């Protein structure tokens, strides 16, 4: 099992986008040192492959009430960060398209750039990241071969890589995002980001600086939540 601190992210989750934004703007060195792992709700093929590996996908459907809360909460958190959110319309979401393309971006040495571009496209431009052509365009804009990104969802080796990623999600007990792991410590939701940063201590080269950061996430971001089962995270 990896000993590096891990950051489970998802293009689907607005809280994951906001956590990524906070890490990129306030703690870029930490973000570079984390092991990034994608999280997504699998389609039928991916779930079958995961089951064959002995894994399962931990998922609890969101209630209507929680969804309505999320819409208001995310807009409030985005405005606090000076961000304007454009809600995407997910008529037929196919999360493999973007998340398997992430592996193509990693292979091209452009994983972080791809993540930033896809997050921006989805949450600030309202674009459909379940469209292979859209993903190819976004990939090309950051130096990833468009064909490699577009075809990732159809390639056996990428599907197998995705199944292994889903198995890691199961083994790490990840039930929603953003999800952070530091050794035996687990933190779910953007409201726990500062606790995760504090837990790092000397576990990364920049860990000691986190404890004396003049502008930690908790100083500017309200960590309270109206739902005790909702720590600023979603599946």
TrEMBL record:
Q: Which family does it belong to?
A: Belongs to the GST superfamily. NadH family.
Which GO terms label this protein's molecular function in UniProt? 2-hydroxychromene-2-carboxylate isomerase activity; glutathione peroxidase activity; glutathione transferase activity
> Gene3D superfamilies, alphabetically?
Glutaredoxin
Quote the protein name from its UniProt record. Answer: 2-hydroxychromene-2-carboxylate isomerase
Q: Keyword set for this entry?
A: Isomerase
The main enzyme category here is isomerase
Q: Where is this region: Disordered?
A: 214-235
Q: Active site annotated at which positions? A: 13
What are the BP-aspect GO terms?
A: glutathione metabolic process
- Pfam families with a match to the protein in the record: DSBA (PF01323)
The upper taxonomy is:
Bacteria, Pseudomonadati, Pseudomonadota, Betaproteobacteria, Burkholderiales
Q: What is the E.C. number?
A: 5.99.1.4
Give the compositionally biased regions (Basic and acidic residues). Answer: 220-235
**All residue ranges annotated as the DSBA-like thioredoxin domain in the record:** 7-198
Which reaction does this enzyme catalyse, per its entry? 2-hydroxychromene-2-carboxylate = (3E)-4-(2-hydroxyphenyl)-2-oxobut-3-enoate
């Amino acid at each position: 099992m990896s000993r590096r601190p891990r950051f489970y992210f998802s293009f689907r989750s607005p809280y994951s986008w906001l956590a990524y934004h906070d890490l990129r703007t306030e703690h870029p060195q930490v973000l570079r040192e984390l092991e990034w792992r994608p999280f997504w709700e699998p389609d039928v093929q991916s779930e079958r492959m995961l089951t064959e590996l002995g894994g399962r996908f931990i998922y609890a459907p969101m209630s209507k009430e929680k969804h309505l809360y999320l819409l208001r909460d995310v807009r409030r958190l985005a405005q606090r960060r000076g961000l304007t959110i454009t809600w995407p319309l997910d008529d037929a979401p196919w999360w493999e398209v973007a998340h398997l393309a992430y592996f193509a971006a990693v292979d091209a040495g452009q994983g972080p750039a791809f993540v930033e571009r896809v997050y921006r496209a989805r949450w600030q431009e309202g674009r459909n990241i379940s469209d292979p052509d859209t993903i190819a365009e976004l990939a090309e804009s950051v130096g990833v071969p468009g064909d490699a990104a577009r075809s990732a969802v159809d390639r056996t080796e990428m599907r197998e890589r995705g199944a292994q990623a889903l198995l890691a999600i199961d083994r790490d007990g990840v039930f929603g995002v953003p999800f952070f792991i530091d050794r035996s410590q687990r933190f779910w939701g953007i409201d726990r980001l500062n606790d995760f940063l504090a837990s790092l201590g000397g576990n990364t080269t920049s860990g000691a600086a986190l404890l004396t950061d003049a502008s930690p996430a908790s100083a500017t971001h309200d960590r309270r939540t109206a739902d005790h089962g909702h720590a600023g995270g979603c599946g």
